[in-house]
Design brief:
The protein has 124 residues and is α+β, with helices and mostly antiparallel strands. 27% of the residues lie in helices and 33% in strands.
Length: 124
């Protein structure tokens, strides 16, 4: 089953950390991706640009409304994700515990709904 780890942390706190610490966390995340890839579990992962660089799109009664970031008054922002295969929720949680962002924020573990007929789906 595919799982998505959503990594949240406080952007301001992360930016205030020493550059070496931030780089170490990136290296550790890359190593985790390589470990998952070595087991045939890795699908994709990436940090996200800061929240202020994004947009929110809503369509109401056929009209699109676009709002530029920042979006919410929250303590943590969505910072990145990992997408991988795991046998079950317990294994996905064990992987989430290894994400460096879990030490400074929150990692949400979510199983994906597999839908046949999508590009790159296993079923036609």
């Amino acid at each position: 089953m595919k799982y998505l780890l959503l990594v949240y942390h406080n952007e301001a706190r992360f930016k205030s950390m020493p550059e070496g610490t931030r780089n170490d966390m990136l290296v550790e995340s890359i190593q985790l991706c390589h470990q998952l890839d070595g087991k045939g579990q890795y699908i994709h992962a990436s940090p996200l640009q800061p929240e202020a660089t994004g947009s929110v799109v809503q369509v109401r009664e056929g009209k699109a409304f676009v709002t530029d970031g920042p979006f919410m008054e929250t303590k943590e922002q969505l910072a990145g994700y990992f997408l991988f295969d795991a046998e079950n929720q317990d294994e996905a949680i064990r992987i989430a515990e290894r994400v460096p962002g879990a030490r400074i924020g929150t990692v949400e573990v979510r199983p994906l709904v597999e839908i046949a007929g999508l590009p790159n789906s296993r079923e036609a």
